[in-house]
Give the backbone structure.
Amino acid sequence: MSKTKSEFLFEELLKKRGYEFIKGEDYFEEGEKCPDYYVKTKYGNIICEVKECGKTKAHKTFQKVKVIAFSPKRIWRPIRTKIKKASEQLKPYVKNKIPMILILTNPYNYFADLSNEEILSAMYGEIGISIPLTDDKEKEPELFFEGGGVLTNQKEHISAVCILEYSTIIPNKISEIKREIEEKYKDEKKNFDVTNKMAKELHGEVESLKKKGLIREREALRLRVFHNIRANIELPLEIFNSEYDEHY
């Protein structure tokens, strides 16, 4: 079977981490419905299912009209469908007794909301805010999850949902220039004009250095890992713990 772009990206990430991986059809016996990868690491082995965002009706509409408000269902339903299908595909492999994870990507930049809030909502339900009706200032508003999450009912076999993406790495030189400009204007009263002036100055210096080849931004593949708090088997933090990975 031919590889998807998402599978190429995931394999690239695994190679950079120094992990051995085997395609599912070469490792498992069940055939085409088997998970995509069996990955071997020094921190333990894992089973991975890779899904990528497709071109939805929302994406086609967005291409025609850049400013648009969609029904929430049109935005979150495709993400929840991916998680649900991956969950169903992985469930027969609980017998392996190792972490099983979903890798979700959007390699073609289709219209999709892969924000932290949306992924957490897809996993556990809509995020709500509880505001206590009291004068006690120590009692702060709390977040809670309402119904509708994919992993809320008997989905303990999924250890984590992971977003595979590129993260832009900003060179240290840019941070140094920013600090120098902030120091230069430290005695100025911060208002829109001053802030705008600082931003233009930073942009001008950075662009000048880029033209001279002294600054080059680069990108690194990383994972945003959303651990399933109900998982029977936890995904070890060490497996995906580069300086660019994030865990939730």
User: Anything to note?
Assistant: The chain has two domains: 5-169+218-247, 172-211. The chain has a mean pLDDT of 83. DSSP finds seven helices and nine strands in the chain. The longest strand covers residues 160-169.
